[in-house]
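My current task is to audit a protein record that another person submitted. Thanks in advance; the entry in question is below:
***
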Amino acid sequence: MVKFICGTKGSGKTKYLIDMANEEIKKGNGNIAFIDVDDNHIFSLDYDVRLINAMEFNIKSIESFYGFLCGIIGMDYDVEKIYVDGIYELIDLKPEDLVNLADSLEKISSKFNTEFYIGIDYTKEDLPSSLKDQTEELKLD
């Protein structure tokens, strides 16, 4: 499963993703990775959630991002969920790129039983209609 968590800047995507990761790790079914562009949330995440700073891995394109995610799964087949925040700071993610990314991730998701939750700075209406079912939008309060 691939789920995009969308909303404008400041809508609470990061907190939402952190809260989800912390809740899921308590269930203890598998390993959880949280990918971010810095280490600022190290104390917000449960110590059992693996925080990975994507800035350290020279991710420059959607293809290298996909390869990076595959590498995480390849090193640990017990990764049950991968949360991604701030990736738009590394690569230019256009709405149409997300369709191809979702298709590619769905294939490895079903093969390795890994779920992906990716925060993006778009609203649901900005996204192609094919992604609407895979999208949850957070709104400013």
In short: The first helix runs from residue 13 to 27. The first strand starts at residue 2 and ends at 6.
